[in-house]
Amino acid sequence: MQFNKKDILDMASLSVEEINLILDTADQMKEISTRPIKKVPTLRGKTVILFFYEPSTRTRTSFDIAAKRLSADTHSISASTSSIVKGETLIDTAKNLEAMRPDVIVIRHSSAGAPHLMAQLVDASIINGGDGMHAHPTQALLDMMTVREHKGRIDGLRIAIVGDIAHSRVARSNCIGFTKMGADVMVAGPPTMMPMGIETLGVSVTHDIDEAIRNADVVMMLRIQRERQESFLFPTLREYSITYGLNTKRLKNAKKEVMIMHPGPINRGVEISPEVADGPFSLILDQVTNGVAVRMALLYLVLGGARNADPD
Ligand code: ASP
Question: Is residue 202 exposed (0-12), middle (13-18) or buried (19+ Cβ within 10 Å)?
């Protein structure tokens, strides 16, 4: 199959076939990271700009490593060290970056839609590294890769997504992605952190975490996104942790082979206890490992990889 997308903006714009191709390519890419020399010449001479307006540990580092493992050159820009602090608009910044002829721009921005705007302005491929509360497609893809790797499939699985659903771009992208791939998704969280109309994404809703995890094959815990809340939407963190936190006691009622995931950063002792985060059911660090493979696959595919030869 050919991959004809110039940009990776959200999960809604990817077809089932495209998602499968990305996951299959990522499976192949993963092996490169296990070699003593973790580098192939596939994207030699290509330029990738990492343009992060919001803080990031995993996504930015993962893209940087992914690009370098494929021999592309990377350049990082952050809001605090760029001309954004001097008042330059996103449109002017985009035009100036384009004038330097990059091949890919990975952008993270606090405003929903910023990557979509950028994609209309520049010839380079745009990959969304997270835009406001809207989308985080590369996180959803690495989550799918991790589930498929451990369960052998996505279709027919029950996925519980628990926490601050309203402010989470990860939740939104995973609801769209997992339901598209045939999973049964249930979201759980306090009413104050549940967006109106989330059911329209084809998911079911509960405010009871125990109900959500009882039959789940995968439980995905989310951080409370306090930076996106005007006031705290729960009386206290302690109460939140008691009512919505995942701990060993609560996990006893889950399926025997349940998988625990979290996109990070974790707030230990709030949404997830250290015993669960570091316990035998946790795939949190597998997600991070797979993030590099998924991002290698995406860089390769948007630059025309599926139309050319094998990555190595
Ligand atoms: N790292 C994820 C994101 O950027 C999740 C989080 O921040 O809680 O959306």
Answer: middle
- For residue 55, say if its preceding peptide bond is cis, omega within 30 degrees of 0: no
Distance from C-alpha of 29 to C-alpha of 35, rounded to nearest angstrom: 11
Instruction: Name residues whose C-beta falls within 8 Å of residue 61's C-beta, 6 or more positions apart in sequence.
Output: none
pLDDT number for residue 101:
97
Distance CA 199, CA 143 (A): 21
Q: How many Å apart are CA 207 and CA 99, to the nearest integer?
A: 49
* Distances from the Cα of 57 to the Cα of 16, 63, 162, 266, angstroms: 29, 10, 22, 12
142, 167, 170: residue to mutate for ligand 1 pocket, most atoms within 8 A of CB: 170
According to DSSP, the residues that pair with 75 across neighbouring strands are 49
75 pLDDT above the threshold of 90: yes
Q: Measured from the CB, is residue 263 less than 6 Å from ligand 1?
A: yes
pLDDT tens-digit map of 180-209: 999 999 999 999 999 999 999 999 999 999
Ligand 1 in reach of 136 Cβ (< 6 A): yes
